[in-house]
Amino acid sequence: MGLDPRTSNLTYSPRIATEPPTPLDDPTRRRFEAQRVRDTEPELALRRELHRRGYRYRLDRRVSENVRSRPDLVFTSERVAVYVNGCFWHGCPDHGTAPKNNADWWQNKLDANRARDEQTDTALTDEGWTVIRVWEHELPETAATRVAVAVDSAR
Q1: How far apart are CA 146 and CA 125, in angstroms?
Q2: Going along 6-153, which residue ranges are E strands?
Q3: How far is 129 from 80, CA to CA, in rounded Å?
Q4: What's the gap between Cα 12 and its chain centre?
Q5: How far apart are CA 94 and CA 82, in angstroms?
Q6: Which residue, among 129, 43, 56, 112, has the nearest Cα to 83 in the 3D structure?
Q7: Are 110 and 89 within 8 A, CB to CB?
Q8: What DSSP state is assigned to residue 135?
């Protein structure tokens, strides 16, 4: 609710698109606050598997002045950028879900995430990078093989 200065009446003012909705309850709030940005379980599993195979990489490093996001793993000399995407946050076609509460806000948020991912992929590819997107549900061995093939072919 907001105050309309022209009439001094209370009016509904829509949320700003970037303002997150208020969680329904404390457990929901705590669950969202606990979401990790880096060092997630799927990312750690992929890193362990790649390291076990002898691959070395940089972590969470910015690779382009034109792209704000930082890949989770970077093979600098091979120009391979790896993102480990959560199924919910990046709209996995197999496991992505749409929340029922604040559905419009979440739909806009998740659509914006997918659009940003596409823009990032395009910008990095245009700069000569190979971009690999790994879903959190992928087996670490399978994902590591995809990454290894890209890195080996770039060498």
Answers
A1: 17
A2: 9-11, 58-59, 73-75, 80-85, 130-135
A3: 6
A4: 32
A5: 20
A6: 43
A7: yes
A8: E
- The residue behind tokens 């598997």 is 49
Model's pTM, two decimal places? 0.78
Contact call for residues 107 and 99 (beta carbons, < 8 A): no
Residue 72 parent element (H or E): none
State the pLDDT at residue 115: 95
d(C-alpha 98, C-alpha 116), whole Å? 18
Can you give the length of the chain in residues? 155
The domain segmentation of the chain, as residue ranges, is: 37-154
What is the token pair recorded at 20? 């997150």
Residue 130: what are its φ and ψ, rounded to 5°? -100, 125
Burial class (CB in 10 A: 0-12, 13-18, 19+), 151: buried
For domain 37-154, give the fold.
Endonuclease; Chain A (3.40.960)
Model pLDDT for residues 63-120, shown as the tens digit of each residue: 999 999 999 999 999 999 999 999 988 888 888 888 788 888 888 989 999 999 999 9
Q: Token pair for residue 153?
A: 């072919």
